[in-house]
Amino acid sequence: MKLFYISLFSILLLSFQPRENKSEYLSELKVELQKKWPGNRTINLVFHGHSVPSGYFKTPIVNTLESYPFLVYKELTAQYPFAVINLINTAIGGEDSKSGVQRFETEVLNHNPDVLFIDYALNDRRIGLDSAKTAWEAMIQKALEKDIKIILLTPSPDQKVDLHEDDTILDQHSMRIRELAEKYEIGLADTYESFKESVKTGSNLPDLMSQGNHPNEAGHALIAKGILEYFK
């Protein structure tokens, strides 16, 4: 019965992947990234969320250059040496999506993102699944109205939540985010599943974390890897 449950969960997980192939979702943008001066333009990547994309490691220490937005930036500038890429981080430590949507138009959309990354689920536990869904959908809809490409992130772990279980509160938020990615046919970087798989294959979760709910550089690298699949 346990094996059947795990298999069923895996099937459900696969069914909530974005409909577009990862290699195709940003195909037009990847063409732009390959253009040389003077035919190129600035590409804006906006990371919106809480303390993890903000770069908080062991609070109150902020390791900006080791956080996943900058690991993504570093890899993309190596991969696309002719590109002018703006990394814009609008994340705020301690914030949830209900607060994030309140400043979305004035502090996020005003930067004209080419790609928008949303990462709030870790803190959304305190506002609940329904309130979080309402906030995420509001941001998604506003961004899609402006033809912005969106990549949603499921949460990075909290060491107080067992990654070996499949129905924790973080699993529930992850499933909602997968459903939103499917509904709106947008990108999904399934961070939570990446950490689950890493632990299942022998990694020690504390080796990926700087404190209870903040990844260290190795953990951030795991998040960045999921995002970079869209830029291959």
Provide a descriptive summary of the structure in words:
With 232 residues, this protein is an alpha/beta fold. The protein has a single domain (44-231), classed as Rossmann fold, CATH 3.40.50.1110. Helix content is 47%, strand content 14%. It has twelve helices and seven strands. The longest helix has 17 residues, at 129-145. It is globular. The termini are far apart.
**Approximately what portion of the residues adopt beta-strand conformation?**
5-15%
Report mean pLDDT, rounded to a whole number: 93
Query: Strand order within the widest sheet?
Result: 2-1-3-4-5
SS field, number of helical segments: 12
Helix and strand run:
HHHEHHEHHEHHEHEHEEH
- Let me know the largest β-sheet: 5 strands, parallel
- How much is the radius of gyration in Å? 17 Å
The coarse silhouette is globular
The assigned structural class equals alpha/beta
Number of extended strands:
7
Tell me roughly what share of residues is in helical segments: 40-55%
Assembly of the depicted chains: single chain
Count of discrete domains: 1
Q: State the CATH architecture.
A: 3-Layer(aba) Sandwich
CATH topology: Rossmann fold
Give the N-terminus to C-terminus distance in angstroms.
39 Å
* Unreliable stretches covering 5 or more consecutive residues: 1-19
CATH superfamily: SGNH hydrolase
Keywords:
disordered N terminus, single chain, alpha/beta, 12 helices, five-stranded parallel β-sheet, 232 residues, Rossmann fold
